[in-house]
Design brief:
128 residues, alpha+beta, 5-stranded antiparallel beta sheet, 4 helices, 40% helix
């Protein structure tokens, strides 16, 4: 019983943080074709590597990559998706969030986890 309390407390704290940090009510697998967005996220990653090689630091935003002419994103994609670089010391994830033009009821999230090279995809209900 004594060893169970820290595990339960840790689980409760983690779940509280996860729920408090997300904007979604429900997370489900993505049901749209995400190939073009994954390719765009991959191109962003390549632009990050070029920026890092030239400047010896990571960019803060995707817009900084565009301004430095490391990447030129398709306007149609930019109208439907927002891209974010998630970093601490170095960029850890590249995230793409759909705008309401894709689906008024859901936000689609596609992330590239840099360390593993794995894409993660979610569909989250929007708050009313």
């Amino acid at each position: 019983m004594k060893n169970l309390f820290p595990k339960v407390l840790f689980t409760f704290v983690c779940l509280t943080l996860i729920i408090g940090c997300t904007e979604s009510k429900v997370t489900e697998p993505v049901s749209i074709d995400t190939g073009e967005i994954q390719a765009t996220v991959g191109a962003i990653y390549n632009a990050i590597k070029m920026h890092r090689q030239d400047n010896h630091y990571d960019p803060e935003t995707v817009e900084q990559l565009e301004d430095g002419e490391y990447i030129e994103l398709n306007e149609e994609i930019k109208n439907d998706w927002e891209f974010y670089l998630v970093k601490r010391e170095h960029i850890e994830r590249i995230s793409a969030y759909s705008k309401p033009s894709i689906d008024a009821n859901y936000t689609y999230i596609i992330e590239l986890i840099i360390e593993t090279g794995v894409f993660v995809k979610y569909r989250s209900m929007k708050f009313e």
